[in-house]
Amino acid sequence: MNQIYLQNFTKDELIEDIRNSILSEIKVILDYNIKPPGDELLTRKETAKRLKIHLSSVGRWVKSGDLIPHYVRGKVYFKESELPI
Fold first, then answer.
1. How far apart are CA 76 and CA 42, in angstroms?
2. With contact defined as beta carbons under 8 Å apart, do 67 and 41 qualify?
3. What is d(CA 62, CA 22) in angstroms, rounded to the nearest whole number?
């Protein structure tokens, strides 16, 4: 059995270091934002391009209820699966 010896670490420092490493990995996973296919979030510009409409029309479609906006960290996105065909 392999053994690892740590010097200059207290038990609490080791626990805190492990906790920070785990939280860092969780943040990477959440930031990667894995979504099922077809549920991609599109920006206003990408949405306009996909629907072949002018960028200014996106706002009018939101007001009319034809597009449902989703807000992530203060930015507007649209779910690809919710775009009108």
1. 9
2. no
3. 39
Distance CA 72, CA 40 (A): 13
Lookup: tokens for 74: 């203060």
How high is the mean pLDDT of the chain? 86
Encoded amino acid at 62, one letter: V
CA–CA dist 47, 57 (Å, integer): 10
Q: How far apart are CA 68 and CA 60, in angstroms?
A: 11
Residues 6+ apart with CB under 8 A from 39: 79, 80, 81
**Residue 55, pLDDT above cutoff 90:** yes
- Note the pLDDT of residue 49: 95
Give the DSSP H/E element, type plus range, for residue 23. Answer: helix 11-32
